[in-house]
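Margin note: ligand = potassium ion.
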Amino acid sequence: MPDTTICAVATPPGRGGIGVIRVSGPTTASLIETVVGPLPSARRASFRRFAGDDGVAIDEGLVLWFPGPHSFTGEDVAELHGHGGPVVMDRLLQRLLGLGAELASPGEFSQRAYSNGRIDLTRAEAIADLIEAGSESAARAAVRSLQGEFAQTVERLVRRLTDLRVHLEAGIDFADEPLEGLALDGVVQRIEAIAAEVAETRRAAGRGQRLQEGLTVVIAGRPNAGKSSLLNALAGRDAAIVTALAGTTRDVLDTYLHIDGLPLRVLDTAGLRQGGDVVEQEGVRRARQAMREADRILLVTDDTAPALAADDSEITDLQAELPASVPVTTVVNKIDLSGRTPGVANDGFAVSALTGDGMAALREHLRASLGEDDTEAVFIARRRHLQSLDAGAAAIDEALEAAHAGAGEELVAESLGEAQRALGEITGAVTPEDLLGRIFSTFCIGK
Ligand SMILES: Nc1nc2c(ncn2[C@@H]2O[C@H](COP(=O)(O)OP(=O)(O)OP(=O)(O)O)[C@@H](O)[C@H]2O)c(=O)[nH]1
Ligand SMILES: [K+]
Ligand SMILES: [Mg+2]
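Resulting structure:
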């Protein structure tokens, strides 16, 4: 347990009717007594005067006292509800710091709650995600995670893996007996059942992660088709460099934007062509990789471009460049030059990234095709959860392969142990210290 007492303003900066200062740690009781007089009864609001070090009142308001371990952090916690002006809040905070409290770092209250076993990691993250939620469906998914549904699902999977390992390791102990084949038989089915549930959880978590972070849309096409111009038109600002030189964009450019409240991550990529210098070739390699990882590709074509000759340096068959599993929307650009009517056409969406013609229809299409369906149970999830679920699924696949190949119980058990560790990282049952630091540092102060 940390021996410091931390404090922070828990309400947002600025002016409000009420401002709350939260205090947590071993000296909370004496700090509060010094400022407000005798400790109030636990978990009951009491109206008090908040005294400065000269005895003159800084403010007056409610005090709440939550003796540990039945508090948010598991430590002694108090809240001072004063008037929400920046000067009052700052003076109260200074008063507590003067009495030996330390200013909490971002996420420190949640980190202490996690360290003291009050919440698991998915719940700690759900608190941050709920506060940050940008849409109603994201908020609903965060509450589901906050109530522990995601953690319970993962814990159930970890328990099933443990049971199976115990079963296998019991087999290892009796390796002299000829029951190897028999034992592995049932094991294959059990591993398959777990693999199916991991896949189901991965799907739900993937939807949740997209709600939180937005789907990834990759803009791709030949050089000079107007990809960067399209990105700028979608973003409503000059996010990417646009020039008349083919090969302007070389790196993948990452932009976050909202279309009618739908969060999207839009990537601009290098134009697809052969040859060019090493930098451009690397850009094309990265463009292909981004396309493979996309939720949707916007394939930009130039409506004024002449047909390609067979010996052209540009890639002659664009269709062959598209990964089969990723849906594609074709965007026919530069219609201000070609004179084509803006909007939906049979070969895609006709737009001018320059004048903005046809962009409303394209936006509407993106919203409709990428908008999330709220009817399914979704857990709010983060990239690290998906990585752990993927690592778990890969280890389970290895276990399954080993079992199918008739490998020994040791090998199967080892892969299952690997899967257990990967899934354990989600709830924090097994979590390296540096990962914890990274997770909590993204929270804001006072959480
Ligand atoms: N008239 C017209 N010009 C456009 C339009 N969109 C892009 N351009 C022009 O086409 C040229 C290339 O545009 P970019 O947006 O840089 O094209 P890109 O596909 O990103 O090019 P690379 O990054 O080099 O592959 C620039 O001169 C743009 O001003 C459009 O809708 N109409
Ligand atoms: K260009
Ligand atoms: Mg570009």
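The domain at 6-104 is CATH 3.30.1360.120 (Gyrase A; domain 2).
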